[in-house]
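Can't attach files on this board, so I'm pasting raw text. These are the components:
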Amino acid sequence: MTEFELIQTFFTRQQISRADVAAGIGDDAALLQPPPGQQLAVTSDLLVSGVHFFPDADPVALGHKALAVNLSDLAAMGAEPAWFLLNLTLPQVDTAWLEKFCQGMFGLAREYGVQLVGGDTSRGPLAIAIEAHGFVPAGQALRRSGARVGDRVYVTGTLGDAALTLQQRLGRLPLQQNEIASAAARLDRPTPRVREGMALRGLANSAIDVSDGLLADLGHILEMSRVGARIFLDRIPVSPICRAHLKELGWDAVLATGDDYELCFTVPAANIVALEKLPLAGAFHHIGEIEAEAGLRIVDESGKAYRPRETGHDHFAKPKRGNT
Ligand code: ADP
Ligand code: MG
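---
Top answer:
Structure tokens for the assembled complex are below.
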């Protein structure tokens, strides 16, 4: 199969077609028409075999996740996803694998109304880079730098299922079959919180998606906003399965493992009533407060300070040499 045939077979089919795409796949560049008055939010994420996923990972899940992590970044800006590009290196043309990869990727694309408008394809070690574009009304994007003293800190959904699944796959924490299925879905097929992100425009003053763990990601908001925070372990939302295994898993894993793809955001006191009136009520949890003192303080269930040993995932961090 030639490169041209591969693109024709897998990437120009199964497409939704949006009115704002004047030219999609097939020309030298795509021609796209953003709506007037909106800013373009542009993001990309790279998934490398053996680094971000196990080489034998289910291709349906991989297709889903490669797009989901990008939609999650758009959600964290409060943007509405519209288009994406796919850059792919493949060791060989495995049509069964590509069929499944497309099933996962286009399934999610249809759900969110986003159209694949271009990309590049080459032979090489398996790696998937998606670039996604979305719209946000000018000036309304949710930045990391907007948190202020007195704001409440929130997270959507639940944290910890991705950490739980990772520990199970590494053979460190046995789970029952039914638990594995439900926790693994969170790691393998994360739900980008797009509706939540868009609903938070004008209400939240900062947001980030939890891709590297709550400690690291909330840490980015605190640094960029030049504030600190206090959060309470007994308010951190975890799923029933995670709750049942919290003793073996430990709070460190919940707080410092990435891949939850929930949103963490801050809301000023004046907007709390409006926030709680959103039709999404119950989709997010109040976990703490923004404070003037720099740094993140964590309070455990008995009211004492909790000091995590891990702070989040960093690909270029030096190996740790013990706990200090
Ligand atoms: P060029 O040499 O101009 O880069 P290509 O042959 O690489 O052209 O691509 C031809 C068309 O197919 C372009 O519109 C490009 O955006 C699209 N394309 C290539 N690879 C992919 C892919 N993996 N997913 C979606 N579109 C792709
Ligand atoms: Mg090319």
